[in-house]
């Protein structure tokens, strides 16, 4: 017998839990050291562009998750009708 799959809201809750952890991982020194060179992006040091770009992306993703989690029934498909149509 197949186990039932978790609901869409549960999947979004799990993803929302992992979002700050992934942000923390992306800001750890081994990864952020890749952007410490003297290169510039439109006159902005690459490390500054990376940090603020990552920060903006995390905020936008968290905003999207909050809207999806605030009303999961609104975004979920309607449940099948339990009453048979022949009655």
UniProtKB/TrEMBL annotation:
<feature type="transmembrane region" description="Helical">
    <location>
        <begin position="44"/>
        <end position="65"/>
    </location>
</feature>
<keyword id="KW-1133">Transmembrane helix</keyword>
<keyword id="KW-0472">Membrane</keyword>
<keyword id="KW-0812">Transmembrane</keyword>
<protein>
    <recommendedName>
        <fullName>DUF3311 domain-containing protein</fullName>
    </recommendedName>
</protein>
<feature type="transmembrane region" description="Helical">
    <location>
        <begin position="12"/>
        <end position="32"/>
    </location>
</feature>
């Amino acid at each position: 017998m197949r186990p039932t799959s978790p609901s869409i809201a549960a999947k979004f809750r799990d993803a929302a839990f992992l979002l700050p952890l992934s942000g923390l991982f992306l800001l750890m020194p081994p990864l952020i050291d890749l952007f410490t060179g003297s290169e510039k992006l439109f006159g902005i040091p690459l490390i500054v562009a990376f940090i603020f770009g990552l920060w903006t992306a995390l905020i936008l993703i968290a905003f999207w998750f909050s809207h999806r989690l605030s009303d999961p029934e609104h975004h979920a498909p309607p449940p099948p009708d339990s009453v048979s149509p022949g009655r």
